[in-house]
Every structure is written in structure tokens, then in C-alpha cells.
Amino acid sequence: MSLILDRRSFLVAGTALTLVSPAHGAGTTHDIQMLNRHPENRRITMVFHPIIQVVQPGDTVRFVPTNPGHNSQTIDGMLPVGAQSWRSRLNQEVSVTLTIPGFYGYKCLPHTAMGMVGLIIVEGDGMMDNLAAARAVRHRGRAGKAWDEIWAQAASDGLLG
Ligand SMILES: [Cu+2]
Q: How many whole angstroms from 126 Cα to the centroid of ligand 1?
């Protein structure tokens, strides 16, 4: 449906609400730090912070190499259909603009087995379409435990529908 039709339907409906159009490249930027230790829990090492980030379509996520030795890259099978993967070099800041709703799993390659993984949720129509597939992906080492904790946290936060 076009924006004009949306606007017309709003007018026909007689609503006084301001028209809210989908974001197109003018979204918010969210920083995710790549850390050797969690800032609030020193026992947690090699961690993305925050580990779960909820964004809107058109928002940008910026991975910040606060500590050296980390990267960010998408995990096979943990992307919405049609979404672009990313893979940064070590110690490189990388920004990704996410337009397709759904669940995005990513990892730090050197520290995957230590559980350095994270989840981005892009809200919007169809966001649940890849949830089952993303949850079905198997992980090695402590990454499996990390994902169990991430999904449990997401569920308790009401993010899984
Ligand atoms: Cu790392």
C-alpha cells in the first residue's frame, strides 16, 4: 500500500492522529559494545553489551570495538529471509542498517566458543517469521548455553510474542 493511500485512509477514517510513516534510513543508531568484561558483572567475560537489542526497521546498529580482539558477524541460519549478512574485521567498528523485521543472531568469531554472541530484534510486520528457524540453530561450546540464556531473557521480556 502506498503512503498516499495510507494517508487517504487516515483522512477517510476522520482521525486526527498524526500519520506515522515507516522509517526510511533516518532511524536511530544503537551502540553495541564489544567488551572483555561485562560492565556490571565482572564475572562475565567476552561479551556484547547489550546482548539483546530491540530496534525499529531503518535503525542502525553500530558495533564499537571498546576492547580489542573482537569482531561481529552474522550466524548462519539466524537471519530473516532477505536480510543481509555482515562480517567485520577484528577491532573494526561496523554499522549495519536493518530494514527487515525479524531475529538476527550474531557472534564474535574468536570468542564464539566462549559464548560471545548476541541477538538483535527488528520489530515490525513479519518479525516472527524466522523465530523458529533461528531458535533451531545448534551452537558449539558455551555458545549453546549463551543462546539458552538469551532466548529465556527474550521470552521473559515479552519479546517472543
Ligand atoms: Cu570477542
A: 31
64-106: pLDDT as tens digits: 999 999 999 999 999 999 999 999 999 999 999 999 999 999 9
Query: In this structure, is residue 106 part of a structural domain?
Result: yes
Residue 136 CA to ligand 1 centre (angstroms): 23
Return d(Cα 75, Cα 77) in angstroms, integer.
6
Residue 72 falls inside a structural domain? yes
Domain that holds residue 89: 23-156
Per-residue pLDDT, 11: 37
Q: Which of residues 21 and 39 earns the better pLDDT score? A: 39
CATH of the domain at 85: 2.60.40.420
